[in-house]
Automatic annotation (TrEMBL):
GO terms for molecular function: ATP binding; mismatched DNA binding. GO terms for biological process: mismatch repair. Transmembrane segments: none annotated. Keywords: ATP-binding, DNA-binding, Nucleotide-binding. SUPFAM superfamilies: GIY-YIG endonuclease, P-loop containing nucleoside triphosphate hydrolases. Residues 286-447 form the DNA mismatch repair proteins mutS family domain. It comes from Lamprocapnos spectabilis. This is DNA mismatch repair protein.
Amino acid sequence: GYCIVLVLETTKTYSLEDGLTEEAIVTKLHTCRYHHLFLHTSLRNNSSGTSRWGGYGEGGLLWGECSSRHFEWFDGNPVTEVLCKVRELYGLVHEVTFRNVTVASEKRPRPLHLGTATQIGAIPAEGIPSLLKVLLSSNCSGLPVVYLRDLLLNPPTYEIASAIQETCKLMSTITCSVPEFTCVSAAKLVKLLESREVNHIEFCRIKNVVDEVLHMHRNSELYSIVEMLLDPTWVATGLKIEIETLVSESGWISKKIGEMISLDDENDQKISSSLVVLNDFFEAMESSWRGRVKRIHAEEAFAEVERSAEALSVAVTEDFLPIVSRVKATMAPFGGPKGEILYVLVDEICRGTETAKGTCIAGGIIETLDSIGCLGIVSSHLHGIFSLPLNTNNTVYKAMGTDIVDGQTKPTWKLIDGICRESLAFETAQKEGIPETIIHRAQQLYHSLNVKDAYLGIDNAELENRCSNADLEFLDEVEAPSGTNPIQTPRIETQNPMEILLKEVTTSVTIICQKKLIELYKQRNLSELAEVSCITIAAREQPPPSTIGASCIYVLFRPDMKLYVGETADLEGRVRAHRLKEGMQMVPFVYLVVPGKSVAMLLETLLINQLSRQGF
């Protein structure tokens, strides 16, 4: 048979396949990408004894494939001579070694015939639709498609094929969310690493890959899958590795990269801001380099930028703003008398009345001041004002900054951009000497406001039984007045606000949906009682394959802590669509599978109303 030697210069590897038919050789040349082609002189002599290659049928197919390409003849030992040619082409010294990644071809089925591969659309051909485009979803492209095509053209051994099949079966039955499975070209990464041209994005991709390996290793449902993938990976890459080594090396790589690059959840590299300089200016100056390398590695450079930003702010304040003020003083704003400028300061607007109506009155006042071009500052603890549909053009929201010192929230006494929906009431009360028992009870009452509707009035014993397995570990029981059910309130934990919100919403969704499903079951609208099981899709995760075609309810947690409730039969597509929007790339989801679209639509409406009433 024929023999083919494939050399990959970037990864310094080579593989040798022999015993191939002419069709198999042509198929490989037709489908693989290569920069240089070398033909051994033995191909010139066929079995008929003539040196006219392809002149008598044998080798004609191969000659037709090669004659249209640029190639060179070579002689001697195929592996040794080809590696010498590669060293010469790329200017490598003789001491550079290439690793043999040949996978034994014993017991492997014969490769697909060229004609068959073309007819079924495994190889592109005019007039024949691509088989993989028909079989795979539209968002599947790149390396996964190439891998599947190679499996079709060069079927693996029975053992490897069985491992792939078993992996697919396991993937179709898991209920937990799965990693995004970042696909990166190994050859491209090696080349960038060797040339020291890897940027922040590529390092993030490498870290994503190893973090996904670690995630699967830690997850009880995914651990067996990552184990089964080792042998198919060995066949595809020629690199055989044990699971312990893979996990250990992945952990080391993740740690090293994490020590160098700035990650998404780090907030010590915010773009400079100023009350007197447009934010767009700082965005244009700093967005191209901030958030790439950890600040600790370039502390002096960061400090210099901050000093420059402060100096610019001072210069604008002292030199430019006085000129603007003098110009304004000589102009007549909104048709008023010349030089008349309205400036208003309001502290704690509408504080002396009922909160809801006071909030709306404050909103009306702000709209009026905005419409007449008034300059001024309005302060308030009426956080509901941020949710009002105000018609304003010039109003800008500001907040008083805070910082975490020794685990405690402390005010910085600095005005920053943005909205603040929290206060330091409990911290201030503690500082002023209010007893700890009162503060602790106040915290319990405060948190109960957001979840009490989910727990009050639930006297259905079956619901209590069905929800007994829900994730309620973060709740403490608080004594309630006699004759009422106990109120469950969150325990104060050192978690970030998004984690707390995730737990609270998951619990509420579980109870609301389970109660409704029990009601539908009793009304005989459901043939069997479905048990609610909420699954979290964290950042850089996606739903499991078991959700394909299933009716699902999902809750999206926006970065501003607001919720979006939806229903779909294509959860993976919906998650992907949401994350394509600006600022939504890392948002988490909670979802549950329900029996049918009509039930999903019913629960969607119910959750929108109930979660809103509970303060979410």
